[in-house]
Amino acid sequence: MKNFDYFEPKSVTDVLALLAEYGEKAAILAGGTDLIPRMKKGLISPSCLINIARISGLRKIEESQEGLKIGPMVPLALLERNPLLSSRYPVLQKAISHVGTPSLRNAATIGGNICLDTKCIYRDQGQTWRRALEPCFKLGGQRCYVVRGGKTCHASLAADTVPALIALGAEVRILSSSGERSIPVEALYTGDGVRPLVLSHGELLTEITFPSLSAGARSAYLRFSFRKAIDFPLVSAAFCLEEQDGVCINVRAVLGAVAPQPVRLSLLEETLKGKNITKDLLRSCSEEAPNEALRSSKSGRIDAFTRKVIARLVYQGLSEVSERK
């Protein structure tokens, strides 16, 4: 790694001051399970590393009548073991359980996973591999090796927690030296594989909040990967559904890892609302889901095999949350 300045600020105010001073040359260090390997591979070379581990206010877990508030520095392992998640937000707990290994989840944080960089099977190789090829879009070039003839970067957002958080209707609080704002988690992503987050260089994610679910709400998280463990998903899917007297009154369906941003299946959601969910309806929705994902993501990464995986996960997930086995 190249030399860099290192800071351990003790307050959010100090972090914002450093971000304002260093700008795009600064990087936030949370758990470091993704950032440090990227620095070692030479994928990024920040001039300033800001470790926010000493800021106690970023490690909170608070429950209220409105829902749950989580600080971005809460380790994934701590959330995975939290009884609130297992009883009320199982979709998030299930998503967290798929992240890396137990030792990685002890270090990795929820904020770090939300802000995970997009993944590319070409860009993420070692420096020797990259020197043998012309640079791709993500490395400042003018080509994509993932999608032949691709005009933009098709690196995928493969963070497990993101689809689950969107299915729960989560929001994030963002601070900067000029003020604060709150946006839905799904609005955090640009759809650009090169620069996937809407965060400016002077902004810091300080809180994740999501509302309480109704007593009858059910949720599910599923994924497909080529290896059973220590692998990013090829496709992930999260669902949250509320029914009343057998009729769907609200549903969220979100795909991950198929595009540079999470893909909300809005047409599928509208199709299910107000309906008595049957196997035929679920089958019809799952068959149409790959087409909607392709239109919504504008990603050439959704090939024939991925389309089959999407259809299978959507059918299984909707069957689970609607109790249609």
Give the secondary structure arrangement, pairings included.
Layout (H helix, E strand, L loop, with lengths): L4 E3 L4 H11 L3 E4 L5 H6 L7 E4 L9 E3 L3 E4 L5 H6 L1 H6 L1 H8 L4 H6 L2 H5 L12 H5 L29 H7 L3 E6 L2 E6 L19 E8 L6 E7 L10 E10 L2 E10 L6 E2 L1 H7 L6 H19 L6 H18 L4
Helix pairs in contact: 5-9, 10-11, 11-12
Low-confidence stretches: none
DSSP strand content: 15-25%
The CATH class of the domain at 222-321 is identified as Alpha Beta
User: Main β-sheet: number of strands, strand sense, barrel status?
Assistant: 5 strands, antiparallel
Broad structural category: alpha+beta
Largest sheet: spatial strand order:
4-5-8-6-7
- Helix and strand element order: EHEHEEEHHHHHHHEEEEEEEHHH
Q: How far is the N terminus from the C terminus?
A: 51 Å
CATH homologous group name of the domain at 222-321: CO dehydrogenase flavoprotein, C-terminal domain
Fraction of residues in H or I helices = 25-40%
Q: How many alpha or pi helices?
A: 12
Bulk shape? globular
- CATH architecture of the domain at 222-321, by name, is 2-Layer Sandwich
Could you tell me the number of beta strands? 12
Q: Radius of gyration in whole Å, from Cα?
A: 20 Å
Features:
325 residues, alpha+beta, Enolase-like, domain 1, 5-stranded antiparallel sheet, 4-stranded antiparallel sheet, 12 helices, 32% helix, 21% strand, globular
